[in-house]
Specification:
Belongs to the TrpC family. Helix content is 38%, strand content 17%. By secondary structure, the protein is of the alpha/beta class. The chain binds ligand LARABZUK.
């Protein structure tokens, strides 16, 4: 599946025309994760559909979902902008940036400098760079461009050898450990427990995907994660503010 998505992205980049720059307030993604409202930072994802699960949320109102996440004290948002595989849209990200005060990660498959510039223009505060999708030198090139453009980067890895390949080149400020294998879709929070000790102390660890309950939250926190990125579990509930409270095992969202 990852190879198919990357082929689509190459085609999209060939046809890409940069949009007008949106005037939105910049908010530091890194600072928000480093100074969470509570003991473990939450990046709450606005995710309508996915390749592994199909349609996740039928009555999808991206702006209302973002407002509800903010009311539930999420520290940052992740917004899927890919149309073909996730039913996302760049306009979702811009609309959300104009509505809430949280930093927003553009969740897409970034493989080219043009997409980094596009992310700036649509109002993103951070982008995702996927270790399994990019050679370490190329990933570093995009990382430097993003940082120079004022974007933070969530550098995601699934496998240990992907992480060590990147660390041979540089130390990312934020490392995401993806609990989902993007080739097989097998998902287990054990992946965070396996990899976290190899991440340098100066990097902030985000545990991503497949986080379904409070036990998972506690497990990845114990492994060294300072933040979690959660999509489907929060999107499946009818009210996203309450969904955050349920996930963190509290009555109200102030976990
Ligand atoms: O979610 C998928 O099925 C997927 C398939 C192929 C590539 C990427 C995919 N997901 C992107 C993500 O990073 C997740 O949306 C994110 O980590 C949240 O995961 P979850 O909490 O399990 O929805």
């Amino acid at each position: 599946m990852l190879d198919k998505i990357l082929q689509t992205k190459k085609e999209e980049v060939e046809a890409l025309i940069l949009p007008e720059k949106q005037e939105v307030k910049k908010v530091s993604f890194y600072d928000a994760l480093k100074n969470p409202t509570h003991t473990l930072a939450l990046i709450a994802e606005v995710k309508r559909a996915s390749p592994s699960k199909g349609l996740i949320k039928e009555d999808f109102n991206h702006v209302q979902i973002a407002r509800d996440y903010e009311a539930g004290l999420a520290d940052a948002l992740s917004v899927l902008t890919d149309q073909e595989y996730f039913m996302g849209n760049q306009s979702f990200l811009t609309d959300i940036k104009k509505t809430v005060n949280l930093p927003v990660l553009r969740k897409d498959f970034i493989i080219d400098p043009l997409q980094v510039e596009e992310s700036v223009r649509i109002g993103a505060d951070a982008i995702l760079l996927i270790g399994e999708a990019l050679e370490p030198a190329k990933l570093h090139e995009l990382y430097v461009q993003a940082k120079e453009s004022g974007l933070d980067c969530l550098v995601e890895v699934h496998a240990l050898d992907t992480l060590t390949g990147i660390l041979d080149v540089f130390t990312p400020q934020i490392v995401g450990i993806n609990n989902r294998d993007l080739h097989t879709f097998v998902t287990s929070v054990e992946q965070t427990r396996k990899i976290a000790s190899y991440v340098p102390k100066e990097s902030l660890i985000v545990s991503e995907s497949g986080i379904v309950n409070t036990a998972d939250i506690l497990s990845v926190k114990e492994a060294g994660a300072e933040a979690v990125l959660v999509g489907e579990t929060l999107m499946r509930e009818s009210n996203q503010t309450e969904a955050i409270a349920h996930l963190f095992g509290v009555k109200h969202a102030n976990r």
